[in-house]
Known about the structure:
The longest helix has 29 residues, at about 1-30. The radius of gyration is 29 Å and the shape is elongated. By secondary structure, the protein is an all-alpha fold. It starts with a helix and ends with a helix. The chain has helices spanning about 1-30, 60-69.
Amino acid sequence: xxxxxLLRIAAAALVLTAFSFAVGVIGDLAQPASANSGARVVLRxxxxxxxxxxxxxxxxxxxxxxxxx
Length: 69
């Protein structure tokens, strides 16, 4: 008895999932294409990290030790 109930619940969940997916696809296809639908996007992983323009380069560690002395 419990297995039949679980099977019914699983079948209902599967049907609702498939229905939801189909409605979403139909909704996406029903919308007109946007003006920027052909825009090209370049994604770099990891992203290029650029330091701010007002930051100078770091000095080597040996010069930093001499300056502290």
